[in-house]
Design brief:
This protein folds into two domains: 47 residues, no CATH class; 124 residues, Response regulator (Rossmann fold). Helix content is 36%, strand content 22%. It is built from six helices and eight strands; from the N terminus they run βββαβαβαβαβαβα. The N terminus and C terminus are likely disordered.
């Protein structure tokens, strides 16, 4: 469960994300608020959820679904975006992903533009971005790395299983933080 939005420190509406569902609870009218039980339940749920989350930005619906399924089976929370504008909207709305998998050839706003905006924003500049693209020219790879990608994969050169294995390596450090390797 992730708290997505709250109106006040003690009372008001809280918006939660549990798996793929979003629910709103108005704590000022909840009957269990007086004895503090609801806060204890919320605290335990929030503390127990330590899953890293990955935002997948991919316009190929088949590949998007395949990556989502594989990563969820590995225990990751997954956020999805099918174009560049939607990716930036997901980042603004929250929750903040731990890692971003970014395609470059996207409708509405290409991946290079999205990457530049991610790295220019104080709220998102430190989120590791892995590019996965059909663009394999040295100039494209160099540009992606110069814009701040920590890794660049050419789709035709890596299997889905190897990509998932590589992503899991980023979370192998104690505490679940991504391990960033130089590109």
């Amino acid at each position: 469960m992730r708290i997505l939005n709250k109106k006040s420190p003690q009372w008001g509406d809280f918006l939660f994300r549990i798996s793929q569902q979003q629910i709103t609870i108005n704590l000022s009218t909840a009957p269990l608020v007086q004895n503090g039980l609801i806060f204890g339940i919320m605290k335990n749920m929030a503390e127990n959820e330590q899953k890293p989350s990955i935002l997948i930005v991919e316009d190929d619906k088949f590949l998007l679904k395949l990556l989502e399924t594989k990563l969820q089976k590995e225990g990751f929370d997954v956020l999805l975006a099918e174009n560049g504008i939607q990716a930036l909207e997901v980042l603004k709305a929250g929750p903040r992903p731990t890692l971003i998998l970014l395609d470059l050839i996207l409708p509405k706003k290409n991946g290079f533009e999205v990457l530049a905006e991610i790295k220019a924003s104080p709220e998102t500049h430190d989120i590791p971005v892995l590019i996965i693209s059909n663009l394999g020219q040295d100039t494209d790879i160099s540009r992606g790395k110069e814009l701040g990608a920590v890794e660049y994969f050419v789709k035709s050169d890596i299997s889905i299983n190897d990509l998932v294995k590589h992503i899991k390596e980023y979370f192998s450090r104690p505490g679940g933080s991504p391990r960033i390797t130089p590109v």
